[in-house]
Specification:
The protein is of the alpha/beta class. The chain has nine helices and seven strands. Helix 3 crosses helix 4 and helix 7 crosses helix 8. The chain is globular, with a radius of gyration of 17 Å. The two termini are 21 Å apart. The relative contact order is 0.16. The N terminus is likely disordered.
Amino acid sequence: MPNNTAPAFSGSTVDSYNEGPPRQVPGYSSLHRMVSLLLAEKMPADGRVLVLGAGGGQEIKALADAHPGWSFDGVDPSADMLRLAKRVISPHDARVRLHEGYIGSAPEVLFDAATCILTFHFISREQRLQTLKELRRRLKDGAPFILVHLSFPQAEPERSKWIARHVAYGLPEGADPAHAQATREAISTRLTILSPEEEVAMLEGAGFSDASLFYAGLSIKGWVAYAA
């Protein structure tokens, strides 16, 4: 069973974590609205959502704000990140259960939907398929699954071009060029990034069908697929 779905962010990294996605992800607030609409197409009014990579709490908060009948189980390997999430989602505390760990720590129940946003590029290629299979095993047949993370062509020169675009978008004005170079190198060497074609093939191999690209913000892609 997978045991390394994401790095365990801690310390000062956690304090500023929620400042990053709005700056680094094009249309971040609109992304949450899109996720909400896509899940609602299939979800019952009292549905239960599994959120893999729940640290920070922004995704759960946005969905809980929009759907007062939904409940959530959030999983994350970092205790510090879960504490941050607990603060962010405090208005909805009664509807949210947080679990420290990886996909194996998620409850062994059948969920009505699942999400994994800005997490999978931290998972090694060797662990991804099994992680997806464990997610699928916890979903009702036909349940929607939202997957969003870095994905772009892996052949050069396209790969380096897309990494540079991602870094450039997220940098504040007047940033030190050396910082940009260091960030490009970190993304290139520390993250596991697949091509969009590989992503869809892996979803299908894990038991999902009808995968559709619903979001493309520069280097970040988002799919909705369904438990087959």
